[in-house]
Amino acid sequence: MDKFFYITTPIYYPSAKPHMGHAYSSILADFFARFKRIQGYKVFFLTGTDEHGQKIQKAAKENGMDPKDFCDKISKTFFDLSKTLNLSNDDFIRTTELRHKKSVETLWNILEKKKEIYLSKYSGWYSISDEAFYSDDEIEDKDNKKISKISGSQVDWVEEESFFFKLSKWQKPLLKYYEENPNFILPESRKNEVVSFVKSGLNDLSISRKSFTWGIKVPSNKDHVIYVWLDALTNYLSALNYPDTSNIHYKSYWPASLHLIGKDILRFHAVYWPAFLLAANIEPPKRVYGHGWILSGEEKMSKSRGNILDPIEIIQNYGLDPLRYYLIKEVSFGNDGNISKDKLESCINSDLANNYGNLCQRVISFIEKNLKLNVPENYNFIAQDTKILKIYEDEFNKLVDSIDSQNINYYVNFVQNQLFVANKYFNDQEPWKKKGDKDRLNTILYVSLELIRKISIMLYPIMPNSTLKALKIFNITENIIDFNSIKNHEYLKINEKINKISILFKKIEKND
Ligand code: MSP
Questions:
Q1: Cα–ligand 1 centroid distance for 199 (angstroms)
Q2: Other C-beta atoms lying within 10 Å of the C-beta of residue 64
Q3: For residues 145-151, average pLDDT
Q4: Of 102, 352, 51, whose CA–CA distance to 240 is shortest?
Q5: Ligand 1 centroid – CA 374 distance (Å)
Q6: Ligand 1 neighbour 236 (Cβ under 6 A)
């Protein structure tokens, strides 16, 4: 039986070019997608751009462009970034596509038919930057402006006719849903925030706007455009050919396994989205995970704050895989984290150049000199060999569980420790002193190769390019990487040859 995994990133606003925060969401999602693939799942990985609404219309106007032309231009920079980041996404959706429009209109019609929508008047606060409505108690004064306490963004008073979704009615079913699906929202701390927000009572939600035109029109009333969040969230269905729910794609992948998002957009994904779906009688996604922010100093990165870190610039200077490794390893997943050139350089030098790259080089050069690159034969594991090989067998289920519960920190710590252990093994065993004891020499080299193989496979979802270079040692190509094979300790066959590889990571000269 095939096993399916559907993972999504948020779809990004093409209001300005992408920054490190966007790269972060995408790289993490790619990590999960790649892991599940090598674990044997059929994976569908979706990313894209969220192109409607007042925020985009405003940005287009500021740039003197027609909104669609503007979206075409900026969306392309996100598409290009997906290539630069080596994302393995299967689709890139744009909400200005026809397939998406059809899907949103259908969902709207269903909600209307089920009497979940009514026409009334909205008067309240709205933040264009967040595309969000805020209640009075979520607003404060700052520098003679009204801002949202939650996001710090400026809000304006809006009064206009609007369609409403009967969100209040879904308070109890949502709470029941959270209770019956305790892992629907992760991490736990964020789940608690959402649950207390819902417990405090839900107001009906304004889901259409009348004062601008850039969006999908309400099918039954063309004076209104559909609220951009209802529009955007539906992308997760559009990419599976919704409303055609009988197609194999939809049947295999819905409900989504994991919506990976930033903590700032949790309310939309963990409250509004499941409420819309429950109201339309569609199963909600299995999990929403709200990750932390990449901070620039102490602040969230944003165009309005002018503190943007450019991922392209970092990649040009340091390479892609070091950035991917840094974001996955150095930022404790679920929490906020920081990136600085200094920390990135230390990480490249110690973890990547010294621990990983150097281990591969030392072992291969030694085998080249002493065994002419032949797979060591007559190996015979003794207790100290079995002990370090068996860790992978013993830890295997825990490692898989750690990924399935998005406990990346556990997984990454494990690999990092094992890199240390592998280096220590090679040093302590001193193969250069064992040239007189061929069998022992062969065994040490066999074990060292096995450790490189296991570690490279484990690092593959983090650093696909570099690990694929390393896996050339064993003629392992991307399509045959199998995570389950790290339990096996006798992968290499005697009479075969291993391959030499080029240097994986260059050390950075630091001035201090
Ligand atoms: N368009 C909406 C999402 C719609 S999903 C149906 C949106 N777009 S966004 O471009 O503003 O942000 C997209 C994602 O990037 C969010 O998950 C957000 O949390 C993430 N990041 C934006 N800045 C960030 C950091 N500085 N750090 C980490 N991620 C942050 O919201």
A1: 26
A2: 7
A3: 92
A4: 102
A5: 50
A6: no
Per-residue pLDDT at 302 exceeds 80: no
- Cis ω before 243 (30° cut-off from 0): yes
What are the distances in angstroms from CA 403 to CA 39, 431, 458? 11, 36, 12
* Coil/strand/helix, residue 482: coil
Is the Cβ atom of 14 under 6 angstroms away from ligand 1? no
**CB 344, CB 374: distance < 8 Å:** no
Which domains can be identified in the chain, with CATH numbers? 341-487 (1.10.730.10)
Atom 6, ligand 1: residue with shortest CA distance: 233
Residues 492, 282: Cα–Cα separation, whole Å:
48
Cα separation, 40 vs 53, in Å, equals 39
Q: Find out whether the beta carbon of 262 lies less than 6 Å from any atom of ligand 1.
A: yes
With a 6 Å cutoff on the Cβ, whether 216 touches ligand 1 is: no
Q: Is the CB of 399 under 6 A from ligand 1?
A: no
The pLDDT-based confidence of 78 (bands split at 50, 70, 90) is: very high
Q: What is the torsion angle, in degrees rounded to the nearest 10, for the CA atoms of residue 47, residue 50, residue 51 and residue 54?
A: -170
9 CA to centre of ligand 1 in angstroms: 9
Distance 33 CA to ligand 1 centre (A): 19
Distance 431 CA to ligand 1 centre (A): 51
Q: How far is the CA of 228 from the centre of ligand 1 (A)?
A: 14
Ligand 1 contacts CB of residue 10 (under 6 A): yes
Average pLDDT in the chain: 95
Angle between helices 320-329 and 464-471 (to 10 degrees): 110
Query: Is residue 90 a contact partner of residue 248, using CB atoms and an 8 Å limit?
Result: no
Length of the chain: 512
How does 69-99 read in b/e, with b if 16+ C-beta sit within 10 Å?
ebbeebbebbbebbebbbbbbeebbbbbbee
Question: How far apart are alpha carbons 258 and 251 in whole angstroms?
Answer: 16
For residues 162 and 181, what is the distance between their CA atoms, to the nearest angstrom? Answer: 33
The reported pTM is: 0.96
Task: Please give the number of the atom of ligand 1 that sits closest to the Cα of 263.
Answer: 19
pLDDT for position 512: 58
- The CA dihedral of 499, 502, 503, 504, to the nearest 10 degrees, is -80
Q: CA-based diameter of the chain, in Å?
A: 88
